[in-house]
Amino acid sequence: MLELRDLVKHYRTAGEETVRAVDGVSMSVSQGEMVALYGPSGSGKTTLLLMVAALLAPTSGKVLVNGRDVSSLSEREASHFRLREMGFVRQSFDLLPGVSAIDNAVLKLLKETPWKEAHRRVQPLLERLGLAERLTHRAETLSMGERQRVMIARALSTEPKLLLADEPTGSLDTQRGREVLELLTELCRERGVAIVLVSHDPQAAGYADRVLALRDGRLVDYEPDQGFGSAPERLAVRTRPTTGFAGGAGSAGAR
Ligand code: ADP
Ligand code: MG
Q: Is the distance from the beta carbon of residue 13 to the nearest atom of ligand 1 less than 6 Å?
């Protein structure tokens, strides 16, 4: 469903220097699959996700979602794509202060759904995420883990088939991080949502069907021994960086 072909993003900085943030990445993700992209800070993870979300134009290469090149979309088509087909949990929490958890969670859905209907659809999602007692609490009174779960509810509210998550455990302690990862993977499995999760948290890799490693904008061999020993047994960890479709439930070769 998602395919990156030799994707490159070079940033020009003020001087003559070029930052090779993403430097030739090819990978694919099948329907319902969860891929963790593990890499240290500065390895190009956010840049890569911004290109997949059609928020940043690649220097070269392609991002194909269901066979369609997202960088060839018009502004209008791109925003429609982000609204309907994709959920993006960004690295920063863009919750509105002074506004309740549920009103923050419906923001995306409200773009094309009446208020009442949007609330009716988002509430079960928030309850599922353990926020039943927090629906009417204002954003700034929520814990980091609760805020992250509101962001997840917002991203999933429009029932996308592709979810991008940028460091979803970045500001959480180990226990809260684990809870968020568990909920995220469970919800996406149930709904057949493909996830690309980028993180420098080794814990995140343990929840993925497949783990890829990014260094200096390039995919490199993933070394499960380097702090990745805790992957749950039920999950197969694969180490080939560039090839496509992992088998497994729900993938059925669909793109
Ligand atoms: P990560 O998310 O893995 O921390 P980023 O994609 O944010 O990595 O950044 C990759 C590299 O690109 C870093 O060296 C960063 O400083 C640089 N970079 C990111 N955004 C810009 C930008 N807008 N202009 C110039 N350089 C950038
Ligand atoms: Mg980042």
A: yes
